[in-house]
Amino acid sequence: MEYSSSEDEELVGDFIDAEDNTGTENIDQGTGVMASQVHGDDPCTGSMPPVIGNELLIAADVVGKNDEPRMGMEFESDAAARAFYNAYALCFGFGIRVARSRSERRKGVEVLVMKRFVCLKEGHHKKKPVEPSNKKKRKRLSIRDGCPAMMEVVRRGPDKWVITKLVLEHTHVIVSADRAREVQLRRLSGKFQEHENQLQELRRNVFGDTNAQGLFNYFKKMQSENSSFFFSTQVDSKNCVSNAVWVDARARMAYTYFGDAVYFDTTYSRNENMLPFAAFTGVNHHGDTVVFGCVLILDRTESSYGWIFETWLTAMDNRLPFSFTTDEGKGIAAAVAKVFPQCFHRLCRWRILSRCKKRLTDVCTRFPGLHDELKRCVNGCDTVAVFDMFWGSILDKYGLRDDNWLQSLYEIRDKWVPAYLTSSFFAELSLTHRGETVSRFYRNNFSSRVSLNTFISRFDQYIDSLYASEAQKDITSFSPEQFPKTDTVLEKQARSIYTRAAFETFQLELVEAMQHYAVKVQDGSYMKYYVERGGDPPTRHIVFYNVAEKKAWCECCRFAFSAILCRHVLSVFLVAGVIMLPEPCITKRWTKKAKTGPELFGLNVGNGSGSADTVVSRYNDLVRDAIKCAEKGAVSAGAFRVAKEVLHKAFMEIRGLGEKLNKDALHSASSR
């Protein structure tokens, strides 16, 4: 006989029996790209068996030293087979359950002869007929999505069970081995229930009694309007939402142009009254904020951040940025190291500096100028030597040599001080001025008293305003409103190439260059210059210039940091008679043509499935072209009419081609 077991399900990472929930109503989890991720972290309280975590951790270590499951592998019993598969699941971060077993009557006794262990996401949810009732039932998510992973063992003797069927591949992203171990260690340490209570309280504050129904209604609405809308959710063992990531088509398009430097904005973590909302953001060619994706973070653990980063990276075709900026935090740092190992991980210096008054309350009260001096030290020093000297003088001046917080900041200075960040690009036009950010808007507009639906609606309006502002600035960038401050050809060329924001930064550097004087001190393929400026104290920078390759390097590394030439290099150009900006010194992302043509950056960490021959890649390419058409077509009524005509003509031609292909196929089939 055969039967399905719902009482025998296990969720690796929690090591407890998990309820099947087949009698509850399913809320579809959809995404245009990938299935939602099951997150086995929060067990159903009140049904906890004796802790067996130590045994499973030992079994996991045994699995790690041996082969993965394979056809023909033998076990002494079905329990041994189950323990092995359970430990294997622990190592690879997925849950298991017994889906089927079979017994035979032998000599008048029922004997178990087969067991099939499957991934917790195997199969699909089936609704049971429900009798009409006035009682409102809470909707739950279904974590099943048809995953085929399974292991079936059959009895071949009294103490011999053999694997006869085996599927190792999963159809969904599985959590890491570290994730499963993290959960079990947290349980063994006694912190599990505390974490569970905090998570449940946060859910009630965010969702109320709706259990995320409003969030899923929003996702479905957005995807019905645009199939390129991406969303994915992470749920716990009780099918409750733990985290969510969503990215619209415009964000994915903007990322192809301006995703070289990404900031993960977690302003909410500074105020417990704020909704747990975060955003992936960047900077466009006008120096303004652009949003690359949104996140709802309920479970703030290392593994959750890892899932968030991996999911968002999937939405962005697995293309890494050059730099990734976040707030401080061990969980975030560990997740970034795993998901973005090739990226430079920077800590947000503005967030660090904003904590100064809180961390140094007494000193700042007695010396109000301390905060401004620290900002000048961090933002104004362009070399390591100058920063170290300035930092030390501040510590001595205010008697802060023994301050633990400042000592800890100095120890990680290579993670946040610009003078030390000379090896990556961060898309900052100004070191001393921070532009309008999502975090500032968020702080001014939202709190926990605002419902999630209201928040999402307002934030969508805010994003719309960002795109409208960008479109308007695209138009004004081509008008000759920037007034020259010099009579150089360099400035005229820069005005014709750069957007207004980028040109104003370049113009400032050019004016400053005229206050410096460059002296050549060494000939060769790379000529060496000293660029000096008088003052108190006087400054000197070293610049190398290669005439043949038309490349220059300055020890301030301003160009690597912001992709705008520094005053020291421009001073050398003026002395060396360089009339026009060399092509290697112009970065397209700051120009008026930043959004023309494909702009691929960074390293693609995908598996190669995104080739030009796949339906998905062709679809994504067409979406990008359609968005370009929409951006240009929306700027005026005339452009709108032209765009509509062109799109309609293209659609009719494509439909006609499809009809012709269908007729040819029918004709070919009938002639056989």
UniProtKB/TrEMBL annotation:
<keyword id="KW-0862">Zinc</keyword>
<dbReference type="GO" id="GO:0008270">
    <property type="term" value="F:zinc ion binding"/>
</dbReference>
<dbReference type="InterPro" id="IPR007527">
    <property type="entry name" value="Znf_SWIM"/>
</dbReference>
<comment type="similarity">
    <text>Belongs to the FHY3/FAR1 family.</text>
</comment>
<dbReference type="Pfam" id="PF03101">
    <property type="entry name" value="FAR1"/>
</dbReference>
<dbReference type="Pfam" id="PF04434">
    <property type="entry name" value="SWIM"/>
</dbReference>
<keyword id="KW-0539">Nucleus</keyword>
<comment type="function">
    <text>Putative transcription activator involved in regulating light control of development.</text>
</comment>
<dbReference type="GO" id="GO:0006355">
    <property type="term" value="P:regulation of DNA-templated transcription"/>
</dbReference>
<keyword id="KW-0863">Zinc-finger</keyword>
<feature type="domain" description="SWIM-type">
    <location>
        <begin position="545"/>
        <end position="577"/>
    </location>
</feature>
<protein>
    <recommendedName>
        <fullName>Protein FAR1-RELATED SEQUENCE</fullName>
    </recommendedName>
</protein>
<dbReference type="InterPro" id="IPR018289">
    <property type="entry name" value="MULE_transposase_dom"/>
</dbReference>
<dbReference type="InterPro" id="IPR031052">
    <property type="entry name" value="FHY3/FAR1"/>
</dbReference>
<dbReference type="GO" id="GO:0005634">
    <property type="term" value="C:nucleus"/>
</dbReference>
<dbReference type="InterPro" id="IPR004330">
    <property type="entry name" value="FAR1_DNA_bnd_dom"/>
</dbReference>
<keyword id="KW-0479">Metal-binding</keyword>
<dbReference type="Pfam" id="PF10551">
    <property type="entry name" value="MULE"/>
</dbReference>
